[in-house]
UniProtKB/TrEMBL annotation:
CoA-binding domain: residues covered: 4-104
Gene Ontology terms, MF aspect: succinate-CoA ligase (ADP-forming) activity
Subunit organization: Heterotetramer of two alpha and two beta subunits.
SMART domains reported in the protein's UniProt record: CoA_binding
Annotated protein name in UniProt: Succinate--CoA ligase [ADP-forming] subunit alpha
Ligase keyword on record: yes
Annotated Gene3D superfamilies: NAD(P)-binding Rossmann-like Domain, Succinyl-CoA synthetase domains
Binding site for CoA: T17, G18, A19, E20, K43, I100, T101, E102
Amino acid sequence: MAIYLTQESKVLVQGMTGAEGMKHTRRMLAAGTDIVGGVNPRKAGRTVDFDGRAVPVFGSVREGIEATGADVTVVFVPPAFCRAAVTEVAEAGIGLAVVITEGIPVHDAVAFQTYAKQRGTRVVGPNCPGLITPGQANAGIIPADITEPGRIGLVSKSGTLTYQLMYELRDIGFSTCVGIGGDPVIGTTHIDCLRAFEDDPETELVVLIGEIGGDAEERAAAYIRGHVTKPVVGYVAGFTAPEGKTMGHAGAIVSGSSGTARAKQEALESAGVRVGATPTETARLVLERLASP
């Protein structure tokens, strides 16, 4: 089983013909993803060869859907064009848009997230590594060769920590790993993924990775307390971050006592979540919890 992305997903890549789009399309194809086309109005009608597989380029998302039945899109377009790109996806009726691009203005993110939600399109990101269902499909930039299919679900604000936990727990494997991004305005949240993993019969345990800034982890803790029956193990990045300084992600900024790693840890632990002090300790806690009756 999996959440959001399966081997049946048909994926379009917006910005496929750019340098990043080309590189990661090749990697997604190698992971078994069914990439059915790219989107670039200036190169419509062409095909791009990826190690012997010819992938067509369409002039619009709607054309791509009509020709291929695509139901997922991965967005690699520059920040200035992301609002239009995601709006186009929502108008075309695609169910899942994975926005990899970073540096998108907040007002643009608010606009396209609101519009996508109104139209029933789930957005993962922006400024995220995407999501992977190991052995089935990969939509984004997550390395596909560092873990195996398994019984852990993972939701994370941090791309790098996603990869580390995937690797450290590779012998058990994952159902789906979702990198939700660390911008102030994102689409899919910790709570969305917790709900989906709770409903997935083959996910036995969830790893939740948070970081300083905002109150997403506190809200996730409240949701876990009332709605999640499966064990959850957490990690919060940023215990040593100086107050008032943005650390990596645009949303990772602490102001006074708000958004601190300590406050998030306490909220999660009060909901029964075991929280590791380091990624390696977090992996050890997962192993201990899975081994317990």
